[in-house]
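pasting L-ornithine N(alpha)-acyltransferase for the record, 282 residues
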Amino acid sequence: MSADQLSAGSLSTLDLERKGFPELRGGNLSVRIAATDDERDAAQALRYRVFYEEMGAHPDAETLRLKRDFDEFDAVADHLLVIDHAIASDARGVVGTYRLMQGDAAAKIGRFYSASEYDISPLTEFPGRLLEVGRSCVDKDYRGRAAMQLLWRGIASYIFLHRIDVLFGCASLPGTNPDAIANELTYLYHNHLAPPALRVKALPERRVDMLRVDPHSLDFRRSLASLPPLIKGYLRLGGYVGDGAVIDTQFNTTDVAVLVKSELLADKYYRHYERRLRDALD
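structre below
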């Protein structure tokens, strides 16, 4: 079901646009778009703690001084936040974040972030609206089902609000030694490679082959189980990966391109939470 195919009894995208992005609640937690500079700063501070202090990314001097993960894309992107209202209902309560950047926002910079690692021309030439997602992280004390469910719910409502057709971005596996994750990379390539029309490819100078072992020798269930939760989430939605991995030495990760046609995410999340969305907007 696409954004323009909502049934007459459904919450329309026009209703969402009139009222703005809703705050969705789940117990003490909620998800919404950052509305203030302090909230965006809190997202960057959380990213620094997770990426640099916890996961071993390598900060430059300015990043280390400010203790913030930031780049030029932050100024034009939307920042989805998970907030724990038991702490506070403002920036102080930010415990999760996901950066969302639409095509018109990327045009202000002149490119998408993913273009530094992948040839994304199959997507930029695609006749539809694009949403690049990235910089996803959750505070270590909140890495259970609730926070990730809220992030997915937030993305689902966002794609309806903005009539997004394809969601994409770079997702990370830990470490910079592709041989240490050979089974996982091979599993992704063999089982979830994007169709040619949407198949982004790693830039030749950065490309790392994903087909690293004989796929017929793999324990598929074990390979899937060992993937990071975020990548497994994309796959459960029917998502694909691009051709080739990329080593990101700054963030101490091996990246793969992921993409999901938005109706797959909408079918799983939007319909399930449609009543709550309507209630949030009333």
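The CA atoms of residues 237 and 264 lie 6 Å apart.
The chain has one domain: 3-281.
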